[in-house]
């Protein structure tokens, strides 16, 4: 199984220019709203027509602007799970699932639908209509319909976005189980970083219609090379830099000097560190002998059910709640041990965790 995409499409605010190849592994497509994620899937499915380029699936040309080839959606062997599921409201669950199975006998269709209803925990719902289903049930019906014709490529466009947190988790597990038995290629669009990381092996990051990173998820999250990719993969702390030598920089926005594990080049413009990788040091430690250790004052905090975000000012006390340099994230249990410490605290920015970034 192999999908080759190399397309351009003129859009109102920018030109989409996407080029990538998918083989075997699930590819996640990340990017902010309006970055071109969904448009890329729609072009592959044949719902939208690129301005120029090629789309080739298992050596079958789906689209080629030079040759004038543009296969209709029904002939592309592509399954599409839309963000809003797009079930046919006038058809029952069973009829929706069977919609793409027109070439099979009635008995074969009935067997397949029965099997799908059982596997996706929809048994007994075959005669219901979409409006009689919950959001999670609709999502599973849409997935069964997309997989019914045994497509070579399955396109998933934010499939969990309309679901509550508990249901998202349950259906994500169901999706992973379903995909483990699926023989084709999968493209998974999401703006949820953790979700994409769990579901996908490889990632493609889009920004304003351009591919800004592609490769293994560990490399993209662990060592982003540009500021845009760092931001799109959730890095909240970054500062402009002034290089001092090959392993020393001055962080202009943090007002501090930092040692780096990686060599600093003239191309580097920013330094970054992820919020969960900031360490809090015991005041009894000889903090002044450790590199990249700074006194810090808590400016303010915000919380989620399990984590605390701590906004910190380095070097001296803050003047107001907007006067902070970086934010750190810790679990609530850690916060309980930290919160009553007298100021200043001492934090460490591990040289191996610092990200040297290009603009």
What does this structure look like?
It is a single chain. The protein has 359 residues and is an alpha+beta fold. It has helices at residues 37-45, 93-97, 106-119, 135-147, 165-180, 193-199, 217-222, 227-232, 332-338; strands spanning 2-10, 15-23, 27-30, 52-57, 60-64, 69-70, 78-81, 153-157, 185-189, 202-207, 210-216, 237-245, 248-251, 256-259, 270-273, 279-281, 293-303, 307-314, 326-331, 345-348, 355-357. Strand 5 and strand 6 (69-70) form a beta hairpin. The longest helix has 16 residues, at 165-180.
Layout of SSEs?
Layout: E1 2-10, E2 15-23, E3 27-30, H1 37-45, E4 52-57, E5 60-64, E6 69-70, E7 78-81, H2 93-97, H3 106-119, H4 135-147, E8 153-157, H5 165-180, E9 185-189, H6 193-199, E10 202-207, E11 210-216, H7 217-222, H8 227-232, E12 237-245, E13 248-251, E14 256-259, E15 270-273, E16 279-281, E17 293-303, E18 307-314, E19 326-331, H9 332-338, E20 345-348, E21 355-357
Write out key terms for the chains shown.
alpha+beta, 33% strand, five-stranded antiparallel sheet, 359 residues, 21 strands
Radius of gyration: 25 Å
The parts where pLDDT drops under 50 for at least 5 residues are none
What's the SSE pattern? EEEHEEEEHHHEHEHEEHHEEEEEEEEHEE
For the record, give the distance between the C-alpha atoms at the N and C termini, rounded to a whole number: 36 Å
Number of helices: 9
Q: Into which percent range does the helicity of residues fall?
A: 10-25%
Question: The biggest beta sheet, please?
Answer: 6 strands, mixed
Proportion of residues in β-strands: 25-35%
Shape: globular
Which secondary-structure class do the elements indicate? alpha+beta
Strands in their spatial order, largest beta sheet: 7-8-9-3-10-11
Mean pLDDT: 90
Count of β-strands: 21
